Amino acid sequence: MKSHETTEKMRVSFDLDEVLFVSPDTHKTEKPLIFPLNKIFKERLRLGTTELINELQNLGYEVWVYTSSFRTEKYIKWLFRFYHVRFDGIVNAQRHLKEVQGNNKTILPQKLPSRYRISLHIDDENIVCSLGKQYGYNTYQLDAQDDDWKEKIVKRAEQIKNNCL
Q1: Distances (CA, A) of 23 to 30, 117, 151
Q2: Handedness of CA 46, 136, 129, 154 (dihedral sign)
Q3: Residue 125 in contact with residue 15, Cβ under 8 Å?
Q4: Rounded distance between C-alpha atoms, residue 94 and residue 76, angstroms
Q5: What are the backbone angles phi and psi of residue 13, rounded to the nearest 5°?
């Protein structure tokens, strides 16, 4: 078991819309990108996103995006690079449809984090979170403004990691 621990990092993934991308009307947000980048990348990041992702990576986690949006991987990478964030993996709707749904006759859920060995997925949608037990992944449901969201997610990730050791 020890060799497995040192070679493979636990993966944490985030949905984009209503989780990392939020409305400044309902949530505290990071400062918008400077002109002209703010005209290309209109999304606003939940306040603390950059800090949380970097903290998780510093703690030894891989951090992924798993979204049902059709934004391209290139677009997502570039947007977050301007906030000094680099993801370890990105699954968008195109990748999910190709690699997860494929030619499967049974309609699978819109997200299947266990397919990518993701141990914790943060999402706003109740259906995605409620399917976790059935499909073998842990979730944390996040939607409303919460000043303590970063600490709660780190705590949840640590709980899962400690249960796996």
Answers
A1: 11, 30, 21
A2: negative
A3: yes
A4: 13
A5: -125, 155
**Pairing outcome for strands 89-91 and 62-66:** parallel
Rounded CA-CA distance 118/112 in Å is 9
DSSP 133-149: HHHT-EEEE--S--TTH
Tokens of 153: 């997610």
Cis peptide leading into residue 36 (ω within 30°): yes
Tens of pLDDT along the chain (165 residues)? Answer: 444 445 578 999 999 999 999 999 999 999 999 999 999 999 999 999 999 999 999 999 999 999 999 999 999 999 999 999 999 999 999 999 999 988 888 888 889 999 999 999 999 999 999 999 999 999 999 989 999 999 999 999 999 998 865
List the structure tokens of 40: 């290309």
CA distance 112 to 123: 12
In our burial notation (b when 16+ CB lie closer than 10 A, e otherwise), range 79-97 reads: bbeebebebbbbbbeeebe
